[in-house]
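Structure request: Ribose import permease protein RbsC, Cupriavidus pampae.
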Amino acid sequence: MPDMPDTRPATPAMLHADALTLASAAHHSAAIPPAQLLGRVPGAAWVLLALIAVFSVFGPGFLSVANLLNVGTQSTILLLIALPMTLIIMTEGLDLSIGAVLTLCGVVLAMVNISTGSVSLALLAALGVGIAFGLVNGGLVTGLGIPPFVATLGTLGAAQGLALVLTDGQSVVGISDSIPDLYAGTWLGVPIPIWIAFASYALFHWLLYRTRFGAYVFALGGNREALKFAGVSIHRYLIAVYVLGGVMAGIAALLLTARMNAGHPTAAIGMEFDAIAAVAVGGTTFDRGNGWLPGTVLGVLAVGVLRNGLNLLGVPSAVQVAAIGLLVLLVLLIESFKNTAKERA
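Returned structure:
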């Protein structure tokens, strides 16, 4: 008797397994075979090497150990918000509010610390603000279907306005000495902010490449319809990605406040563009769930080296902003040439 097709309705477990298979396929398609690693290296790597070569010649003291540690320390805050920005962009989203949310978190952290004397309570308050804005961003994008650009542009204005209202446009000073001591401290000769950045990267690497959540992130940008068909809650995972951005903004607020020894209502305004630039420079694209987390680290270092080298040369900050824009265009041009060469090969 011939085998009859299985007409039983799919159970939730079966749908979940199918979704994981589909998402894993999208994830593995982004993996880099060792033989092709060199060809996959983003243009950011070559630009970073070029920047180091140029500034080592023309930038006084650029290659000193103290300055290189300074580059790493100053890049940590940008890395903390560029990591979740990578995941958000991989889901075909965008978060323009993360710089303003970081600023607001820093203001709240400073105010709570001054009023209570507790660093732990201050950090929890900053995390709470970040999570709240992450939930709002995710809800606007997934629940109301508002485009990410428009939704997060609105929350950018809200966060920036709240920071100015809470402080009356003035810096919040008088924080505990232990906060700036954290930024200035070292462990095993390495600045503590670099250790925090390293731990954050390790966590995100594990999340993106070793967990079901990461597999779904790849699929959200590369094969969202398949996830819907398999019964995966797209809204839940999209909201989680934006909440991650809020959490990292709260953690970054601790380092930003420690670095400035105060809560400034405009401290991180515009940093979202540096984060987006670092992600784009690192090779993550705005469609098809194509992202590479190590590339984001390269992009952050490229932006950090560029800013540091231009500072050593006495270049005004306004020109530095233009230079970062040119950096993004240069890397995208390199990637375009690489893709053209692959197509012709």
